[in-house]
């Protein structure tokens, strides 16, 4: 039997179907762009590794050095189980991931979590929201990140393209720092004696020092390219204590992204990258195979008075030969060197940083706060602290070098700040009276004051949800002016301006760029200068801010922001996971 629909019934059926499609379309659209859940297992274990003709046992993830690459897409959820098989307490930080309402997964020890103890595990559970590009992960306790680090590659959503030409291939280029001695022993001895920790013995590119070091010619990273092709290099500075200049001999690089935010593309021969920063560059290979190999060199940008590791890591860019070319010729091909700026070329550093501008397009807008709710002025720099009574220090009058923000050297608590905040148990753990301004004014970049003793304490700033913050960070000349790469957890911020000398609150705000400022998670406070940033406190939790030179973090150049819950359900910090480690 065939049923025949009347025109009226047919109309009702079609209307019903069309309404269904309207209701279903948003779900289909969401499904198309919804992320997937990706699982990783990080077995934290010791591994014997040989560099510079010496073998030592280092802390690794899954026995790999550098550690495994994490690949995800914007919108994906990550479940990364960290299992601690080593004698040290361990935490992992997912550097640059916003961690919206998931501060429990951020990773800094005694800030958002107690460390994972020997034989224990913890699942870092977070979703990548509104971010794509290159970031990295690293240990966030003591100096373990010397060997415990690896890249994070966040691809755009499916069918979304890069705002620059699609590269032929992509490669992570991760800079590191290598010590022959055990790094935990180095920092523990330095803290015990009140001296400066020993400098590193080498820099590395993807874990390899390269031919400028003794017996390291075979330990050289090689990048093989095809003539005429364009490559995306994902640069990460995972070094502990050194900003780096990077150059590929006889090749121009195009910067297209900084700290996982697209930027207006610009050409450069040399990239400056501080610890904690990531930079994506396009490298266009020459159209014909040249009769040369090209050094990819990384060397420090160092502005402070202290000694530093003045060596150069070298990788090699090689062009793939045609099958007919003989391999014997390959041995005689000259290696062209890459000329880098002077180690203290702060003029070049300033000019390079000023070139980084956000795209500021309709698709990638700049959401810089136009109105400011709270203004802060932070001095960042060095000072001294008295050594404890049972400690004999190397310094005169039993003092030791220290570092601080607004004259406060941060004291790490023995329980996690985020737990104390969430359960309203801050008493005896921290206070929220961190100074908005330095305790006294002085010529910050001129002759230092006679009294350079710092205060110490676990002091935080408390912010209401959605507060717009303007922060000026001012370097000081106490114990020597120096560039400080400041990293803010939980947020990206906008870099409005930077300058040399003392910040002038009357004249300098006129220079603020509110149109296309760089959007970053780590910024270098210029040596003997200042930088102004803004951010919106739209992420409830406790968020660490610190110098990414590990020696300065150890000395106390750190603080934290408490962002209180908002009123809406999506403006509140999630409750802690059941497996959150205990102190």
Automatic annotation (TrEMBL):
<keyword id="KW-0439">Lignin degradation</keyword>
<dbReference type="Pfam" id="PF07732">
    <property type="entry name" value="Cu-oxidase_3"/>
</dbReference>
<dbReference type="InterPro" id="IPR033138">
    <property type="entry name" value="Cu_oxidase_CS"/>
</dbReference>
<dbReference type="Pfam" id="PF07731">
    <property type="entry name" value="Cu-oxidase_2"/>
</dbReference>
<keyword id="KW-0479">Metal-binding</keyword>
<dbReference type="InterPro" id="IPR045087">
    <property type="entry name" value="Cu-oxidase_fam"/>
</dbReference>
<dbReference type="InterPro" id="IPR011706">
    <property type="entry name" value="Cu-oxidase_C"/>
</dbReference>
<keyword id="KW-0325">Glycoprotein</keyword>
<dbReference type="InterPro" id="IPR002355">
    <property type="entry name" value="Cu_oxidase_Cu_BS"/>
</dbReference>
<feature type="signal peptide">
    <location>
        <begin position="1"/>
        <end position="31"/>
    </location>
</feature>
<feature type="domain" description="Plastocyanin-like">
    <location>
        <begin position="434"/>
        <end position="566"/>
    </location>
</feature>
<protein>
    <recommendedName>
        <fullName>Laccase</fullName>
        <ecNumber>1.10.3.2</ecNumber>
    </recommendedName>
</protein>
<dbReference type="GO" id="GO:0005507">
    <property type="term" value="F:copper ion binding"/>
</dbReference>
<keyword id="KW-0732">Signal</keyword>
<dbReference type="InterPro" id="IPR017761">
    <property type="entry name" value="Laccase"/>
</dbReference>
<comment type="similarity">
    <text>Belongs to the multicopper oxidase family.</text>
</comment>
<dbReference type="GO" id="GO:0052716">
    <property type="term" value="F:hydroquinone:oxygen oxidoreductase activity"/>
</dbReference>
<keyword id="KW-0677">Repeat</keyword>
<dbReference type="GO" id="GO:0046274">
    <property type="term" value="P:lignin catabolic process"/>
</dbReference>
<dbReference type="InterPro" id="IPR011707">
    <property type="entry name" value="Cu-oxidase-like_N"/>
</dbReference>
<dbReference type="Pfam" id="PF00394">
    <property type="entry name" value="Cu-oxidase"/>
</dbReference>
<comment type="function">
    <text>Lignin degradation and detoxification of lignin-derived products.</text>
</comment>
<keyword id="KW-0186">Copper</keyword>
<dbReference type="GO" id="GO:0048046">
    <property type="term" value="C:apoplast"/>
</dbReference>
<dbReference type="InterPro" id="IPR034288">
    <property type="entry name" value="CuRO_1_LCC"/>
</dbReference>
<feature type="domain" description="Plastocyanin-like">
    <location>
        <begin position="44"/>
        <end position="157"/>
    </location>
</feature>
<keyword id="KW-0964">Secreted</keyword>
<dbReference type="InterPro" id="IPR008972">
    <property type="entry name" value="Cupredoxin"/>
</dbReference>
<dbReference type="InterPro" id="IPR001117">
    <property type="entry name" value="Cu-oxidase_2nd"/>
</dbReference>
<feature type="domain" description="Plastocyanin-like">
    <location>
        <begin position="170"/>
        <end position="321"/>
    </location>
</feature>
<dbReference type="InterPro" id="IPR034285">
    <property type="entry name" value="CuRO_2_LCC"/>
</dbReference>
<keyword id="KW-0052">Apoplast</keyword>
<keyword id="KW-0560">Oxidoreductase</keyword>
<dbReference type="InterPro" id="IPR034289">
    <property type="entry name" value="CuRO_3_LCC"/>
</dbReference>
């Amino acid at each position: 039997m065939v049923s025949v629909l009347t025109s009226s019934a047919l109309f009702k059926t079609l209307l019903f179907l069309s309404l269904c499609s309207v209701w279903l379309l948003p779900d289909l659209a969401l499904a198309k762009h919804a992320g997937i859940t990706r699982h990783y297992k990080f077995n934290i274990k010791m591994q014997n590794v040989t560099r510079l003709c010496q073998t030592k046992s280092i802390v690794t993830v899954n026995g790999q050095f550098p550690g495994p690459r994490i690949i995800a897409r914007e919108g994906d959820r990550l479940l990364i189980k960290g299992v601690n098989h080593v004698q040290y307490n361990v935490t992992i930080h997912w550097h640059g991931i916003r961690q919206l309402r998931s501060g429990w997964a951020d990773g800094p020890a005694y800030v958002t979590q107690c460390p994972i103890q020997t034989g224990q595990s913890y699942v870092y559970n977070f979703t990548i929201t509104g971010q794509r590009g290159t970031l990295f992960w690293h240990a966030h306790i003591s100096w373990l990140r010397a060997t415990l680090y690896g890249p994070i590659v966040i691809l755009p959503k499916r069918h979304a393209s890069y705002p620059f030409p699609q590269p032929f291939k992509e490669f992570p280029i991760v800079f590191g720092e290598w010590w022959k001695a055990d790094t935990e022993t180095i920092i523990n001895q330095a803290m015990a004696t009140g001296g400066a920790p020993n400098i590193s013995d080498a820099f590395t590119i993807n874990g390899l020092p390269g031919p400028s070091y003794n017996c390291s010619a075979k330990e050289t990273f090689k990048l093989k390219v095809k003539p005429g092709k364009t490559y995306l290099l994902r640069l990460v500075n995972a070094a502990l204590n050194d900003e780096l200049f990077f150059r590929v001999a006889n090749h121009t690089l195009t910067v297209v992204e900084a700290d996982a935010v697209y930027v207006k593309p610009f050409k450069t021969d040399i990239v400056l990258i501080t610890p904690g920063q990531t930079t994506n560059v396009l490298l266009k290979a020459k159209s014909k195979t040249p009769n040369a190999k090209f050094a990819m060199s990384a060397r420090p940008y160092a502005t402070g008075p202290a000694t530093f590791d003045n060596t150069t890591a070298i990788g090699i860019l090689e062009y793939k030969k045609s099958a007919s070319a003989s391999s014997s010729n390959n041995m005689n091909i000259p290696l062209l060197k890459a000329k880098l700026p002077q180690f203290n070329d702060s003029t070049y550093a300033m000019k390079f940083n000023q070139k980084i501008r956000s795209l500021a397009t309709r698709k990638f807008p700049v959401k810089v706060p136009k109105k400011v709710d709270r203004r802060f002025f932070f001095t960042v720099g060095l000072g001294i602290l008295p050594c404890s009574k049972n400690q004999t220090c190397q310094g005169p009058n039993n003092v030791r070098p220290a570092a601080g923000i607004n004259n406060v050297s941060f004291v790490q608590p023995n329980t996690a700040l985020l737990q104390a905040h969430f359960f309203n148990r801050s008493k005896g753990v921290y206070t929220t009276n961190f100074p908005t301004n330095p305790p006294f004014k002085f010529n910050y970049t001129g002759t230092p004051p006679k009294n350079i003793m710092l205060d110490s304490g676990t002091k935080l700033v408390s912010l209401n949800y959605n507060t717009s913050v303007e922060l000026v960070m001012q370097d000081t000349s106490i114990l020597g002016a120096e560039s400080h790469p400041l990293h803010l957890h939980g947020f990206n911020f906008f870099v409005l301006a930077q300058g040399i000398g003392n910040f002038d609150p009357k004249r300098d705000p006129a220079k603020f760029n509110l149109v296309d400022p760089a959007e970053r998670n780590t910024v270098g406070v210029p040596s003997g200068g200042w930088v102004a940033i803004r951010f919106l406190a739209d992420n409830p939790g406790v968020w660490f801010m610190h110098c990414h030179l590990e020696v300065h973090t150890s000395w106390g150049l750190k603080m934290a922001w408490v962002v209180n819950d908002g009123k809406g359900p999506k403006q509140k910090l999630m409750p802690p996971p059941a497996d959150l480690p205990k102190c």
